[in-house]
Design goal:
about 60 residues, mainly beta, two-stranded antiparallel ribbon, globular
Length: about 60
C-alpha cells in the first residue's frame, strides 16, 4: 500500500436502480451542467443521510 493511496466507498442513500446521469429526468443534471454523477430511481420510501436530520421533500419521478 502506497503512502498516498486512499480508499473511498460510496453508499446509496436509497434503495433503487442506479442510472447514468444522462438518464435522470432533470435537464440541469442530465446535461452535466452541475458536473458528472449518477442518479438513483428509488424502489422504496426510505432515504438515509450521512448526517443527523430529516428529509422533508423529494421530487417525484416523472
Amino acid at each position: 500500500m502506497g503512502l498516498f493511496k486512499k480508499e473511498e466507498r460510496i453508499f446509496n442513500p436509497v434503495t433503487g436502480q442506479v442510472v447514468a446521469i444522462e438518464g435522470v429526468h432533470d435537464e440541469l443534471f442530465s446535461s452535466k451542467t452541475l458536473g458528472d454523477g449518477f442518479g438513483i430511481f428509488p424502489t422504496d420510501s426510505s432515504v438515509y443521510a450521512p448526517v443527523e436530520g430529516k428529509v422533508i421533500f423529494i421530487f417525484p419521478k416523472k
